[in-house]
Structures are given as C-alpha cells and as structure tokens.
Amino acid sequence: xxxxxxxxxxxxxxxxxxxxxxxxxxxxxxxxxxxxxxxxxxxxxxxxxxxxxxxxxxxxxxxxxxxxx
Length: 69
Description:
By secondary structure, the protein is mostly beta strands. Helix content is 0%, strand content 20%.
C-alpha cells in the first residue's frame, strides 16, 4: 500500500509500475521472471492521501523529479 503525501505528477516523479512483472514462470533452473513483452509501464497519477495498492513483487521505481531545479 502506498499513500503519497503530495500529488504524484509526471513532473515530480510518479511511481512507475510494470504490469505482469509480479508473475514468475517455472524454468529448468527454477523460478524466472515472466517476459512482459511489449507491455507498457504505467504511471498512476495519484492525488495526495489516495491509496495505491499493488503487489510488492511488481517491478516498480520512482521516476526522476523534474520539478526541482
């Protein structure tokens, strides 16, 4: 669960998620990340105080804050 204290925008570094990356496949060498193919990443633009729920195994990252210079 992620609750931002400020609105997430493209300028201030919204959290990027890669849908489907939390699903792993069995391989001859054990579990391996599933190929997500060309599935685009998503940038949920969440308002301050709203809740963003996602599986913590989903690849995610904070984007660069372009608003502070």
